[in-house]
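Good day; I would like, with your permission, to put a structural problem before you. What I wish to show you is a protein chain and, alongside it, a tokenised description of its three-dimensional fold. Here, with my thanks, is the record as I have it:
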Amino acid sequence: MNESKDLDQQNALSLDALRKRINAVDSELLSLISERAQLAQRVAEAKLAEDPDTVFYRPEREAQVMRRIMALNEGPLSDEEMARLFREIMSSCLALEQPISVAYLGPNGTYSQQATLKHFGGAVEGVPVATIPDVFRQVEAGQVAYGVVPVENSTEGAINQTFDMFVSSNVRVCGEIFLPIHNNLIGRRGALDEPIERIYSHSQPLAQCRGWLAVHYPQAELIAVSSNAEAVRLAEQDKNGAAIAGSHATHYFDVDILVRNIEDLASNVTHFLVIGREPVGPSGDDRTLLLASVHNQPGALERLLEPLSRHGIDITHLESRPSRVQPWHYVFFVEVKGHCEDGPLAQALEEYEGSMIDVRVLGSWPAAVI
């Protein structure tokens, strides 16, 4: 009995010592984070002294910092989790230099907002807009510094509206985000006690969940709306309605998650691009997006890809879209590894000059870190 009591006392002393050590570490962290914020302010002052029109946010620099943090991490937190923590610290420090405004497909609660927060951190000034073209227009007009647009889903493929906007827009791609998508059936509290007759969502999640819906709600009317957040808003007001959306959307409405993870494929990921007006320098691990217009002649696509192949450029994505200039005339979007200033890619791009193939660089950016 006395041995058990002594052991409890030792554990209590040990726990008390651990808590004291945690408090001491927290104090050290607070001091170091404050010092980092002060250094960020001094960086801002130095930049402004050199150039009043300086650009504070440098995607290539942020990517290099994040990669360094992940390389130095020894656990027990994963590299990705450590990177997320540093993303928030960097976001808050950058906001001291200059708040970043970013447009995305709204309203609040969409996957686009979730992707924006993942990439820029919680200190970003989010600007929800009604459509993907509105994101492009906000960036082009200088009303926001950046925009976030979906470009491809691993289940349903390309987001054609985004690709079409690149044809006529002068924005630059300057970043990317890969966001795992987990669709949930969402509705009013107690909605499962009533028959669900209508299910609202954006067309993409409806397609991503078609198998599950066919089994569980074959008679329900599937209603495509402008965004997942709009779907949740409608479901909140509909006694016999539900929505398909991410859990993030529940933060903004009086609803519950009725059934989690109803997507047909568990490995469901959406690729987003960050668009802006400034070019991004090399980070050491980059991607470049090319827009090519070729004449409708035999072997035209081969002539487009041949210089890239000969210079050892890895093509990561190829997409074609109607040019809208004339019937059966297409443009090609070619995503490759490397920065447009890198030797091999720069040499390949030079070969298109004066040829029958028009190639425009839509932007180079750091490959996604997390």
